[in-house]
C-alpha cells in the first residue's frame, strides 16, 4: 500500500478494493449501496460514508490493522468527526471516566486548549 500525506479517503478506498481483488460492482452490491453513491464516494464528490457503513466496508475488505487506522482517520478527517473506531471505543463509560481522570481541567479551561501529558 502506497501512502502519502496528501492521500484522500477516496484514493485509499479504491486502492483497498483493488488489493482485496474485488470488482467495484461486487463491492457496492455487497454493501447494498447504489452505483451513483458509490462512484460519488470514489470520486471524492461526497464525504466518506458514516461510521456504520465504514465498518461494513472494512468487513468486506479485510485490510491489515495499519490500513484500518488510516481508513478511519481519513474518513474522520474528511467528515470532520472523531474516527469511528475511537468514537465506538468511547462508548465504554469506564474508559471515559479513566480518560477524564487524566485531564487537567484548570489548564483546559484557562488556555482553551489542552494536551494530555501522560
Task: Provide keyphrases for this structure.
64% helix, XRE family transcriptional regulator, 118 residues, mainly alpha, 434 Repressor (Amino-terminal Domain)
Q: Strand-and-helix sequence, N→C?
A: HHHHHHHH
Number of H- or I-type helical stretches: 8
Rounded average pLDDT:
90
Indicate the multimeric state.
Answer: single chain
Q: Specify the overall morphology.
A: elongated
Q: Biggest β-sheet, characterized?
A: none
Structural class: mainly alpha
CATH topology of the domain at 9-85: 434 Repressor (Amino-terminal Domain)
Residue windows where pLDDT falls under 50 for at least 5 positions: none
Q: How many β-strand stretches?
A: 0
What is the C-level CATH assignment of the domain at 9-85? Answer: Mainly Alpha
β-sheet strand percentage: under 5%
Helicity level: 55-70%
Known CATH architecture of the domain at 9-85:
Orthogonal Bundle
Task: Please report the distance between the alpha carbons of the first and last residues.
Answer: 32 Å
GO molecular function, one term: DNA binding
InterPro entries: Lambda_DNA-bd_dom_sf
Protein name: XRE family transcriptional regulator
Organism: Mediterraneibacter hominis
What does this protein look like?
There is one protein chain. This protein has a domain at 9-85: 434 Repressor (Amino-terminal Domain). 16% of the residues are buried. It is an all-alpha fold and 118 residues long. The protein has eight helices and no strands. It is elongated and about 55 Å long. GO terms for molecular function: DNA binding.
Amino acid at each position: 500500500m502506497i501512502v502519502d500525506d496528501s492521500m484522500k479517503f477516496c484514493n485509499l478506498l479504491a486502492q483497498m478494493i483493488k488489493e482485496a481483488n474485488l470488482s467495484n460492482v461486487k463491492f457496492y452490491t455487497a454493501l447494498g449501496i447504489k452505483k451513483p453513491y458509490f462512484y460519488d464516494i470514489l470520486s471524492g464528490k461526497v464525504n466518506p460514508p458514516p461510521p456504520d457503513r465504514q465498518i461494513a466496508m472494512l468487513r468486506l475488505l479485510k485490510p491489515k490493522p495499519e490500513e484500518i487506522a488510516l481508513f478511519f482517520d481519513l474518513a474522520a478527517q474528511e467528515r470532520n468527526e472523531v474516527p469511528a473506531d475511537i468514537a465506538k471505543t468511547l462508548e465504554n463509560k469506564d474508559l471515559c471516566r479513566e480518560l477524564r481522570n487524566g485531564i487537567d481541567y484548570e489548564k483546559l479551561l484557562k488556555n482553551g486548549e489542552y494536551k494530555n501529558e501522560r
